[in-house]
Amino acid sequence: MPEEEKLQRTERITGAQKAAILILTLPEDIAVNVIKNLKEHELNKLAKTILTLGTIKRDMVKLVLKEARDELAEIAPLKTAPNELRRLLEKALPPEKLQKLLEETMMTESGKVIFNELQKLDPKFIAKLIEKEHPQIIAIILSQLKPTKAADVIQYLPKRLGVTNVQEEVIKRLAMLEKVSIKTLRIVTDALEEELASLGAGKEETLSGIDIAAEIVNNLPKEIAQDLLDEIRKENPSLADSIEERMFKFEDIIKLDNRAIIEILKAVDKNDLLLALKGAPEDILNKFLSNMSKRAAQMFLEDMEALGPVKKSDVEKARKKVIAIIKKLAEEGKIELGGSEELV
Questions:
Q1: CB of 105 closer than 8 Å to CB of 48
Q2: Cβ distance 247 to 330 under 8 Å?
Q3: What is the model's pTM?
Q4: Collapsing DSSP states into helix, strand and coil, what is residue 78?
Q5: Alpha helices (H) in 195-311, listed in sequence order
Q6: Can you name the residues that pair with 206 across neighbouring β-strands?
Q7: Is the pLDDT of residue 166 over 80?
Q8: What is d(CA 164, CA 173) in angstroms, rounded to the nearest whole number?
Q9: What's the chain's average pLDDT?
Q10: Burial (Cβ within 10 Å: 0-12, 13-18, ≥19) of residue 136
């Protein structure tokens, strides 16, 4: 076989698959030592790859080994078996770590398929699909979606079903979520898709329900978000306060210090900021203008005037972009959302 053709054949498989083939060709004691030195994410990837590798032909093994510049005299065809992997891992890892790893790898990504599919669906369709479920089940489903998607779905849920305010109840339950067992997720996914592969049981996924709830409420239109928080506050004031504390509203910009505003000005798109500040409270507008040069502030005001009347929805969209940048800067440690006291 020409060298070029051989190279093309090895390029058909991924780096993870090549690593899995190499591990399976090594003597057991050497393989154990290799596994011991892998990082956790590398070990997870290797285990999942081995479990899905199937039968590897002799010539492919040789090509992989040659590519890695390992010289082995004779290699038997390899057939992946979970028992082989378990035997290697039992020698390399403590029992509790092995159990955790096996639960995760045997669960596989198939358990997340339904949530990936939901992410692609129209929010109205999702709302219709889940509207008759118990609010706790709806909360769990939405916790697995991106907050922006979940916010879209919540808007289409019925406000009331009998005596229950569904939207309010879902946000409350979301905010109180801390852990969702894989068993519970399996029940939920089975209800949505009967043919889903098993997710396993016993493992728990840690969630920050309060943060998810705050992010979702943040992405709702202002009026809906405020109504929801008001309803929750009537029944559970501390929960409403906790959700609100984790939210960052456009009006909260006034609380930021000047150093934060300067960082925002560097990072934000000027056109987004122009739109976002259209019709904004004067103190917020001045907060930005006072951190620009006199000439830049004058040009900014002129550009804002040139915008003319703008749609409220466009302003809201621009403000969400600005908030997203502010949160990103905070996550990177470049600014503090709480602001800081100015020195005098």
A1: yes
A2: no
A3: 0.40
A4: strand
A5: 209-218, 222-235, 237-246, 258-267, 270-276, 282-289, 294-307
A6: 179
A7: yes
A8: 13
A9: 75
A10: middle
